[in-house]
Each structure stands twice: as C-alpha cells, then as structure tokens.
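Deliverable D4.2, example record:
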Amino acid sequence: MPNTKSAKKSMRKSEANRKRNYVVRAKVKSVIKDFLLLTKNKKVDEAKKLLPEAYSTIDKSVKTFVLHKNNAARKKSRLAAELAKIEKPKA
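Output generated by the structure prediction step:
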C-alpha cells in the first residue's frame, strides 16, 4: 500500500485510468469482432458500412493513448485485408 499522499493519489488515478482504458479496449475488440463476423459470413455490404466505424473507434483509442499508433495501423490494415479477401474472391 502507498504511504505518501502523492502515492495514494497516484494509485487512485491509475485505477481510474485503468477502468477508462478497459472500456475503450473493450469497444475496439467488440467492433473488430463484429466486423470479422460479417466478413466470415461474406456480408460485404454490411462489412463496408462497419469499416469506417471500426477505423473511427481505433483512431479514438490512439488519440487517448490506449493503443499505440502502430498497433492501430496494424489492426486497421488487417481489417482492410479481410474485407479485400471477401470482396474479390480468387478466380
């Protein structure tokens, strides 16, 4: 347990940040999961509509320093690749 006043405040602050970050991470995960479910079921139009929302959610998490910008770029790239895979099947 913290002994000093500043350490106690730091503990309170880090707990609040942890809770806030958890909410943001959960939102990112759920949006990605929804998108991947649509691509798995070959629902191209619905996936195209959800992609900007997914990008927005991921970008917001970067803005609040929950995700690193490279991590976000990787996630967005993988979502785009999944969409491209179902959009243009191999002939």
